[in-house]
Amino acid sequence: MRENHFRAWSGFMVLVAAIAVFMFASGRFQPVTQIDTMDYANFPLTSIESALNNKRTYVYPCFLKATTTEAIPYMVVPYVQFALAAIAAAVFLATLLRGGWSAGMAFAASMPLMTNSIVLDYCAMITPDSIAQSLAILAVSFWLRLIWLPDRVGSLLMLGLLVFLCYQTKPFYLFLMGFVPVGGVIARWWLYGASSGLVRLGCKLLFSSTVPFLAWCSLRWFLVGHFGLVSFGGYNVVGIAGQMLRREEVEKLSEELRPLATAILNSRDQRVDWSSRMTYSVYETQYNPMVWQIAVPAAEKIYDGDSRRMNLALAQLSREVIALRPVRYGIWLGHAAKRALTQTVHLSLVNPVSVCGVCLIVIFFGASWLKSRRNLQQPQTLRYAVEYQTIVWLGIGFAICATTLVILVETPLARYCAPAAVFLPSILSMGAFQSYRSFRSLSD
Q1: pLDDT 10s digits, 35-85
Q2: 212 phi and psi, to 5 degrees?
Q3: DSSP code of residue 381
Q4: Gap between the Cα atoms of 366 and 234, Å rounded
Q5: Other Cβ atoms closer than 10 A to 133
Q6: What separation in angstroms does the CA of 207 have from each of 50, 200, 221, 247?
Q7: Which residues contact 111 (CB under 8 A, 6 or more apart)?
Q8: Separation of CA 232 from chain center
């Protein structure tokens, strides 16, 4: 057993070293700033009220503060983000090995976590995407431990802390508050045949994932008068609802929102490139202009740049527009769900491990079929059924929950679908390993 574990860890370290060399040689450790980088760099950490009213969350500004200096701004950040990604994948591997998985299956499941686009492309970016994914992988590792050993208090506390840090780094991961308890109960019942203690497990997972969120929201409500993770939700959803707004609907809105709706329509109508067609490509193309060039400037003039009041007004306007036109919003959800599915599958398949996995599955399956025909021998059936089903459930459940939250409020861009698909390539890599074992069984 220890020898097999040594093989898994040796392979993992060689993989990490090879990826690090590749990224260094290709210049992927050179820091790249994005539009929202300055929002995190200039986050008001010294003022509690200003910070709680800010549209960004706390963790990444603190991370930048700890890893940057005026002499070498951002130069260390890509290396630290890569190191965190490697640590998260290593903890995931250790969790699987400790759960009794074979070294081959554990390594096959962990390997794609170091070859996805968030690691290869986003480690260099001064944005929270990379460390948020690392925190999510760590959270899932402790989630798996609790599925196997539900009474581990330490694992429960670590899970709650990591889920909290995930959405405090990137609000995209708010879906974990639903996935952790629901997915945990289903996984323990379906995969491991446990029928007793499911309610207790669900309550513990629900408590650990939601209580810190409710405590944080209550703190913000007490100090700045807003109950929510951050004053930003209205900015997101108005990118969709603002495109659905029609001038004849203004009079049906709340009186206090009519000036904002009118200002948005006036600004929108001045654009010669604006389209009212309800297709996904139109919504995606016009999403950012709708938010940052139309709705936000209009709200800034009306609410004197008060980000909290702006967010509340944009959120309320969006809710009322959607309530007036639920069919229109339903059409959007259909288009967005289709796009999220294709985008997630595409990003899963372009992972280098996925490409190799598909090729190896075809090769070994074909070779096994030919060999069994010649020897009149059946290949070995699926030997690691529970392990494989665990990753299938994790990968698909994680992706569905993540993309569902996204399409409710914004367009499912690659920046969101890539982390949603993080565990899907593991299905293919484990399938390739199992195909290899089936092929080998015909030679034994």
Answers
A1: 889 999 999 988 888 888 888 999 999 999 999 877 778 999 999 999 999
A2: -60, -35
A3: P
A4: 53
A5: 27
A6: 29, 10, 20, 45
A7: 11, 12, 15, 353, 426, 429
A8: 18
